[in-house]
Amino acid sequence: MKRNLLLTPGPTQVPAQLCEVLGRPIIHHRTPQFQDNIKQVVEGLKEIFQTKNDIYILTSSGSGAMEAAVVNLLSPNDKAIAVDGGKFGERWVELCQTYGARTIVHKVEWGKAPSASQIKSLLEANPDTKAVFITLAETSTGVTPDVKAIGEVVSKTPAVLVVDAVSGLAVQEIKTDEWHCDIVVSGSHKGLMLPPGLAFVSASAKAIDLINKCATPRYYFDLRECKKAMEKTDTPFTPAIGIMIALVESLNMIKKDGLNNMFVRYAHLARAVRAGCKAIGLELFPDETCATNVLTAVKVPANIDGEKLTKTMRDTYGITFAGGQDHLKGKVIRMAHMGSLDEYDILTGLACLEKVLFQMGHKFELGSALTAAQKVLNNKS
Amino acid sequence: MKRNLLLTPGPTQVPAQLCEVLGRPIIHHRTPQFQDNIKQVVEGLKEIFQTKNDIYILTSSGSGAMEAAVVNLLSPNDKAIAVDGGKFGERWVELCQTYGARTIVHKVEWGKAPSASQIKSLLEANPDTKAVFITLAETSTGVTPDVKAIGEVVSKTPAVLVVDAVSGLAVQEIKTDEWHCDIVVSGSHKGLMLPPGLAFVSASAKAIDLINKCATPRYYFDLRECKKAMEKTDTPFTPAIGIMIALVESLNMIKKDGLNNMFVRYAHLARAVRAGCKAIGLELFPDETCATNVLTAVKVPANIDGEKLTKTMRDTYGITFAGGQDHLKGKVIRMAHMGSLDEYDILTGLACLEKVLFQMGHKFELGSALTAAQKVLNNKS
């Protein structure tokens, strides 16, 4: 009878309406019926990406879409700038290096954001840069950069801007076209509220030009083949049909709620979580000025074992938070506020956090996180 | 109220029990709960692969697992032999060529099987061959080769044998270890009765040795990382969690029925389909001596438009067959007998085939395909 509440930054909670669709029989993918499905998915995603660019559908996790970006843009020895301020920025670096790019690693302290001016300087010093890789919502640290300002800078150079929006899409604003994001990658299991298995790539004309010139061998993730297939409302390989069918419903749900209303809602939930955490003495991990609304990362008090905390919450009470990654293991906990999560889920998460922290000897007034969050939640101004 | 019966060689019909599991809420993948899931999946797959080798889990379609085999085994300029006797053999060739292998293409006429002796000669002429790529069930033609004999030949050389068992696994016999299949790849949406999205790779010690020496850059499909992760009962990237959860149930269903009983059942269904097709004047496309039990490919009568035939069956009656691919478009139809399909599904498929062929003017006694199939189905000797 234990709850199974995912407050993790991916996979996120799959709402009951989408579970029901995922349990329906599938259809064959080379049929007019499925072509209609592809069409609806592409149209819906274009609204969420806020783009007129091509959208390609891949069957993989989000990292597969990241690989697609790298192997389709960078030829061996091409120069790339990869912003590394956390686990997912690190993934851009690893991908660029794996495929032989001369990779300028722009290290940013965990919890801080890269600035557009830093990227401008790097581009001026390296005018032959082919691509700049950034992360919309760095879930390992809870940071979001000023993508708009970075896009402005990159757009004035021959380089393309590549944004990992795996976690951020449909949770925080990304204006793909207006902000000059040439490639944006995302996945099914974050803001889109579905199980992992599908990934998406949007590509601007500037990106497509580079894709067509790129000499790196690729096959499964060849975006040229994706483009050809998409023009026939098809995918080059058998797609994750079940998730594709449910995605139509997910996109309808988002459309009905309204994308902007969702951004407002997540921002509101984020404020409530932060107020709740502060009320029981938990400090925000990232700089507040660059904190994303996708999730909240807070420091675990020095006398508390963060790994034991999240383990107890999950195994005893069925509420799953994420712990810290790499050097933050045991020192940080992370609570998502995205997808289908509402204010009652957030209060549930905070209640469980209070309970276990209290059991573990952290000193605070029981109920104070809930009270603080409730006050924010009921103040919509 | 129309039926939605998939008699296609992938995706296959997802039985109601598995639809139900696919509709359940998911859990987080970095938990002891999901580790238990991974453990059960790996154990179950080892029984079906008939192997003690490592099994790696990828989130991709079957073609992703094929790419994984190529990029992990072949360094640029390595020599490979790829058997091309249909659409999926062709995929091996394309993959090997894409990644810069010196590829010896062993062309086999569509409908015929490669022989072990031909492969032996090729290996003798090319003793520096690193890998031989074959297809267990070539669904474009309905052919299966003598994998055991080919394995015997390849095992006596330094080359590894790579088998595309995407369609064949759990439908027809493959004894991975006994037949010396160094790499076997498969997917979730064929014999395993689930939607597409997960792929599997088994790797022998001989293959792992080559994987560790391989110089081709790879990241998402890096089997070295899969091995490391698997040793911690983990996956390198977020897996298709929903399908993984349902796969435990699928493997239990197969175990309960008994793998060998399933092979017998599919062979029985295949005989019935062939008898039914013959009774209405449809000729088997492949040589009967090398026909797989995964599906039956038959020639469409000269006066019948095969594309219109399958389209009408699907759009008017809800019964989906596959048409022919490439030069066989409109000339061949393909009916699967795998996964959860039983004799009543087969009779349903034949009944619909009779109905539409009759409407289209093909001359035969209505009911004769059903009668012939029914006679085979009721003669279990």
Q: Please state how the strands of the largest beta sheet of chain A are arranged side by side.
A: 2-8-7-6-5-3-4
Average pLDDT of chain A:
97
Oligomer: homodimer
CATH class of the largest domain in chain A, please? Alpha Beta
Low-confidence parts of chain A lasting 5 or more residues at pLDDT below 50?
none
What is the SS-derived class of chain A?
alpha/beta
Beta-strand share of residues of chain A: 5-15%
- Which architecture of the largest domain in chain A would the CATH scheme give at its second level? 3-Layer(aba) Sandwich
Structural description of this entry:
With 381 residues, chain A is of the alpha/beta class. Chain A is built from 13 helices and 12 strands. Chain A has 2 domains: 5-10 and 258-377, Aspartate Aminotransferase, domain 1 (Alpha-Beta Complex), CATH 3.90.1150.10; 16-256, Aspartate Aminotransferase, domain 2. In chain A, 43% of the residues lie in helices and 15% in strands. In chain A, the strands form 3 sheets. A 7-stranded mixed beta sheet of chain A has the order 2-8-7-6-5-3-4, sandwiched between helices. A 3-stranded antiparallel beta sheet of chain A has the order 9-12-11, with helices on one face. The mean pLDDT of chain A is 97. Chains A and B meet through helix 1, helix 3, helix 4 and helix 9 of A and helix 1, helix 3, helix 4 and helix 9 of B.
What is the topology?
Two copies of one chain form a homodimer.
Chain A (H helix, E strand, L loop, with lengths): L4 E2 L9 H7 L9 H18 L4 E6 L2 H12 L5 E6 L2 H12 L3 E6 L8 H10 L3 E7 L11 H9 L4 E5 L18 E5 L10 E6 L1 H9 L9 H9 L9 H17 L1 H21 L15 E5 L6 H12 L1 E2 L1 E2 L8 E5 L6 H17 L8 H10 L4
Parallel strand pairs in A: 1-10, 3-4, 3-5, 5-6, 6-7
Antiparallel strand pairs in A: 2-8, 7-8, 9-12, 11-12
Helix pairs in contact in A: 1-9, 2-9, 3-4, 5-6, 10-12, 10-13, 11-12, 12-13
